[in-house]
Structure of SDR family oxidoreductase:
Amino acid sequence: MTPSIALVTGIGHQGDIGTAICRRLAQSGHDIFFTDWGSKGWSETFQEEIREVGVRCGKATIDLAQRSSATELLDAVTKQIGFPTVLVNNAAYSVNDGYQHLTAELLDRHYEVNMRGTMLLSVEFAKRFAQTGLKAGRIINMTSGQAKGPMVEELAYASTKGAITAFTSTLSAEIAPLGITVNAVNPGPTDSGWMTEDIKAYLEPKFGLGRIGAPEDAARLVNFLASDEAAWITGQVIDSEGGFLRN
């Protein structure tokens, strides 16, 4: 896709998937706007890093669990650097639960970010896109392979992220006439800072390609889906897991 403005949600730290996506899109010439988790100091440093690539970069600290977050975020990016044509819904909320610990409050928190936040931001993006006269847009959602097997003690997370698969398929059909493609990426288990050495030792033998996934693996796929080469791909969940075996 011709370089434009890319909006990426859920940037948390130097080594996460969101930062890798921002870097890769910036290298392809996209201006970047990201949302962070309120980490003072680091996000400003990262913003300068992106600008050094030679593109513009804006940011906002917005709680995507709030009902008004979609309008606030799109207002912010439009005011700072312009209306985006690429939306990457990377933000997620995840807390281990299991059936003995699942509560209404825990479900609500997962729902607010993983489902409602993603869905409302996507449809608000599409509504505003339709008024711009632009011809090509991209929505790229992040999933975690919920359709490929159980995620024990992740009931709330697996359920709410799994809903994004259905949302991706249906929204893609509704807004295809606008020229917007809607796809999702499942990067599989990714070493983005949360894995202990024990977890790494357990997971690594399960990857057919011989290593654990890195944030840059997901970023390359997102960059492709944001490009002109992916203009004919929509409504898909692409599993990019390096041959990961769940058994």
The helical segments are 17-27, 42-51, 69-80, 104-130, 155-175, 197-203, 215-225. The longest strand covers residues 5-11. DSSP finds seven helices and seven strands in the chain. The chain has one domain: 5-239.
